[in-house]
From TrEMBL, chains A, B:
Pfam families: MaoC_dehydratas (PF01575). GO terms for cellular component: mitochondrion. Residues 34-126 form the MaoC-like domain. One of its GO terms (biological process) is fatty acid biosynthetic process. This is MaoC-like domain-containing protein.
């Protein structure tokens, strides 16, 4: 069940956007699922607690400024949690197989972030669907702050609605 | 500051282990930093809240068993948070540059997980150190459940002690 098949990205992708999808749809190559969120100081505190990550960059304004940032940063892995959140909100029960992450620009508390996953390859095997996605986070709708790829496995490619909360 | 240099992994790596390091050391290629943790149901609940990830695999025993698991799974991204946690506990203020993750086996609530980061390439540029790590999570000290690579940037390679909590 955890074997990762070799996937080949599609060439030119048509885009369908489903940020407000409420009727049944079947995921197709090129489709984009998205979710926006603003990470608060409370989010960062709660994430520090559950991850045990005590990096002062996230909680100490002085420490953050000492290394050149405007203020405390949101944990990269918390921002990246948008990707499995989006995928599982459309496909409850989906199993996360892989994720690559390149953190390109810092995200400060209060920044408005949109996560996007775009289906690049869909493969069916014995009623299991392996989906490969291009994954990106944009700040204020334009600055690319995280990019990478994800793969998930689910029992269907049909989805009805997203369930993640939006801020 | 967020430019990722091209890094080449070292060939044969000697290993030093620092899970209980308390005296000043300088990180060298081949060194392994590690941290163990047991993820509880409360951890999973708190992570679901902060990540907004409502995948029933993590909170609903029936949903988890329906797709072949023994019970609710720990979120892969929560387990993977061990990597930046380990790095920043040795190098407070370190900036996370990249992470790749392959989730190879499921981790259930209560499983004992050890995270390891092994330095594979260290590069200095203008008093900033770019460190590339091989990253692994092992269940019960032997089963490889997550593997990948990480890159971080810090102002020093000298460390004194880890700060992450252990269970």
């Amino acid at each position: 069940m955890f074997l990762i098949w070799s996937l080949v990205s599609s060439k030119t992708l048509s885009q369908r956007w489903f940020s407000s999808a409420t009727t049944p749809q079947v995921l197709r190559t090129g489709d984009v699922l998205r979710q926006s969120r603003l990470f608060t100081e409370e989010d960062v505190i709660q994430y520090s607690k559950v991850s045990h990550d005590s990096n002062p960059l996230h909680t100490n304004p002085t420490a953050a400024r000492d290394v050149g940032f405007e203020g405390p940063l949101v944990h990269g892995m918390l921002i990246a949690s948008l990707f499995p959140c989006i995928i599982s909100s459309y496909f409850p029960g989906a199993v996360y197989v892989s994720q690559s992450l390149n953190f390109k620009f810092p995200v400060h508390i209060g920044d408005h972030i949109t996560g996007e996953v775009q289906a690049t390859n869909l493969k069916e095997n014995k009623n299991r669907y392996l989906a490969k996605f291009k994954t990106r986070c944009l700040m204020n709708g334009e600055l690319l702050v995280i990019e990478g790829e994800a793969t998930s496995m689910s029992t269907t490619l049909t989805f009805e609605q997203k369930q993640c909360k939006e801020h």
